[in-house]
Amino acid sequence: MAQKYFFGKGKVFLAQKDPVTGFALALTWLGNVASLPLTLETESLTHNESYSGQNLEDVRIDTAKRASFSARVENFDIDSLAFGLYGNKVTVAGTSVVDEDLPDDLVVGDEVVTRHPKVTSVVVKDSAGTPATLTLDTHYSIEDATTGRIKILNLAAYTQPFTVSYTYGARKDVGMFINAAPIRWLRYEGINLATNTKVLVELYKVKIDPMSELPLISDGNSVGGYDMKGSALLEDLIASTDALGRFGRISDLA
User: Fold this and answer.
1) What region does 241 belong to: left with phi over 0, alpha with psi -120 to 50, or beta?
2) Can you give the pLDDT at residue 218?
3) pLDDT computed for residue 55 by the predictor
4) Backbone phi, psi, residue 187, to 5°
5) Residue 176: what pLDDT?
6) Is the Cβ–Cβ distance between 192 and 7 less than 8 Å?
7) pTM for this prediction
8) Which residue, 43, 51, 213, 229, is most buried by CB atoms nearer than 10 A?
9) Is the Cα torsion angle 145, 148, 149, 152 positive or negative in sign?
């Protein structure tokens, strides 16, 4: 048999599953994945004999089998993050806000935020009987319009609390711990650089673990990434007589 080495790169996808067939529906590409180890394990019951005086192990019975994966994802994308956060992606349309309340009893130097980011056309007013308009860069400054952060520069004789009106742009948000653990079909479309041939790996039913860590500040030596982990489960919609079993398959496409 000729030696065949493997040096893999490629794309990793997750897909929702057809509830009738269990097969993959539309794919979601996870973006750049730096590593993708697949781990297979067994759980065993062992027994030691007691007749030789050496207490030797004489039987081992496999009581469970399991498979898991861990993908090092380097893509800060809402769709990918939603899997590990157990969250919903929400698309927010831009619109205008009128007279949103700011905190009371502000002092010079305080910074406050609007409820929505990506703000433009900001107007700050006080709460006098006839509200007066504060002057930009005299009484307040917009420190960061993208995140919606405002700084108080001069209170003058204005009456608090202040209100802020603005227009905000469209964005995508994702929440945390909203959904149950995602069940997905995992697909790896790889290329073996040692032979310049393609390989396909599919796990029919994976349950994704919650994200253990999301590094929001990266050091100077690498881009940020996070580990997406999960377990491969038995897909009972596949016949038990299937030649490749009911967990997954590896296809050499050379």
Assistant:
1) alpha
2) 82
3) 95
4) -135, 125
5) 95
6) yes
7) 0.84
8) 229
9) positive
Rounded to whole angstroms, how far apart are CA atoms 218 and 211?
A: 17
Residue 220 predicted with pLDDT over 80: no
Could you tell me the domains of the chain? 8-89+177-252 (4.10.410), 94-169 (no CATH)
Mean pLDDT, the chain, rounded, equals 95
Q: Residue 224's pLDDT band (boundaries 50, 70, 90)?
A: confident
What whole-number distance in Å separates Cα of residue 28 and Cα of residue 78? Answer: 11
Q: What is the pLDDT of residue 126?
A: 97
The rounded distance, in Å, linking the Cα atoms of 232 and 246 is 10
Residue 186: exposure state from Cβ atoms within 10 A (0-12, 13-18, ≥19): buried
Instruction: State both tokens at 217.
Output: 């500040």
Tokens of 74: 């380097």
